[in-house]
Design brief:
Blueprint: E1 2-3, E2 6-7, H1 31-40, E3 45-51, H2 55-72, E4 78-84, H3 91-97, E5 116-121, H4 128-142, E6 146-149, H5 159-172, E7 176-182, H6 189-203, E8 205-206, E9 215-218, H7 219-227, H8 234-250, E10 255-262, H9 275-291, H10 293-296, E11 303-304, E12 307-308, H11 323-336, H12 338-344, H13 347-356, H14 368-384, H15 389-394, H16 396-411, H17 416-432, H18 434-441, E13 445-448, E14 453-456
Parallel strand pairs: 3-4, 3-6, 4-5, 7-10, 8-11, 10-12
Antiparallel strand pairs: 1-2, 6-9, 7-9, 13-14
Length: 457
Amino acid sequence: MAVHGFSMTDRARCGGGGCGVSGMNRVILRSEVREWLDRVGSADLLVGIPSYNNAGTIGHVVRAVQAGLAKYFPRYRAVLVNSDGGSEDGTRQVAEQAAVDDFSQLLVRQRVPALLKTATLYRGAPGKGSAFRTVFEIADALRVKACAVVDSDLRSITPEWVELLLKPVLDEGFDYVAPLYLRHKYDGTITNSIIYPLTRALYGRRVRQPIGGDFGFSGRLSRHFLKQDVWETDVARYGVDIWMTTTAIAGSFDVCQSFLGAKIHDAKDPAADLSAMLSQVVSAAFDLMEAYQEVWTSVSGSMQVPTFGFRYAVGLEPVEVNVERMLERYVLGARDLADIWRRFLPGRIMEWLADSCRVPCREFRLPDELWVEIIYRLAVARRNRILPSEHLLKSLTPLYLGKIASFVLETRDSSAPEVEERIERLCCQFETMKPLLVSLWEQREEVWDGNTQETVA
C-alpha cells in the first residue's frame, strides 16, 4: 500500500531498516562541493542551517553558531553548512560572510580555530527535508562525530544552543537531542494538542517538542537517516522534523532533550492560514504510524527522557487568539463536513458535535476523551483509505479549531505551569485510550478506490 509517496510494504522502507537509496549522495558529487570536501578532509562537528530567503536573520544565526563552537568546542574541527533552497535575496552570501569580529567580547581567550563554512544549493524536492539530506551527505563524507541543525530565521539563538545540542552526543553518548523550549501558552498548538500527545502515546517517550526544528544527533544516526528511502517523498518536503524524532525513537537510538530557553519566531494566530500546515504535519505523523506499526502497537505508557540544560523563566512574545472566529469555523465545518465526519466517527460523537454548535461561545468545551477518539479514528480512517486522504485531513481543521478554542477558554487565567499540567492531562488521556486505537487499527480495512468501498482482510 502506498500513501503519499511512502512505500508501506515493510517498515524498513520508511526508516526502520538499512535499505539503500538510489541516487544517494547526489549533492556531494557536484564538483564545487567535492572540491570543498577535499580541502576540508575530515571534521569532528558539523552544524547545518537550512535556508530559503533568510538574508535578514541568517547572519545572526551563523555568528551564534561560530561563537558557540569557539567557546565550547575549541579543540574540535568544526564545519558549518548552509543548505539553501535557491534564495534570491543573498542568503548564501550573507552566510558565507558572517563572522564574529572580536572573540574577546565573548571571554574566549584560547586560540580560536578557523570555522570551515560552505553555502550550497540542495538538490531534490523543495523543502526542509531535502536541505537536511544535504547536511547528512556532507556529514557522512566528513565522518563527523556529532551534528546539529538549527533554523535560519531564529532570533533567540545563543552560543549556548550549540553546546546543548552537541555536548549530550559528544560527552554522554546520546544519538538524538531534541529541543525543549519555553513557549507562550497559545503558541505551538498543533504540537500541544496533537503531535506531542500522539507521539508520546505511540512510542512511549516524552519528547516535548518532536517537531521543534533544532536538533542534535550523532554521526551514526546521521548515516542511518541518510540510508532511508524517503528522500523523494513528503519527508523531503515538509515532514522531516517528526520523521527524525520518530525514526530515532522507533529505531531504539538513545534520545534526550536540551532546554534552550525561548524560541522566538513570527507567531501566528492558530485560526489563521493553518489548514495546509495542519494537514501536512498530521499526514506525516500518520504515515509514520503505518511505517512503525510493529513498534508502537506493543508500547504501553510512556517514560521521561533525560533532559539537559538549566531551566529558567524567560519573557515570551504574546500570541493573540480569536476564539469567536475559531468557533465560527468550527460551526461552519459541522454544517458542511458532517458527511465526511460521519464516515469515521460514530453516531454518539456526531450527535455531540451537532449539539455543541448551539452552546454559547464562553461555555464551549470539547472534552479530552472525545478529542482523543476523534484523532484515533481519523488515523485509522486515513490508514484504511475510506476516503481520499486530502479530504479526510482537511476535514480536521474545524475540529482542531474547536479544540483550541476550548483550550483557550479553559486556560485564559492559567499560569504556564498550570497550562503544562493541562497538556499533561491530555497526554494521559491519549495513553489511557490507546487500546481503542490498537483495536481499531487491527480491524478489517475499508479501502477507498475512488468510487466505491471494498472490505479487505
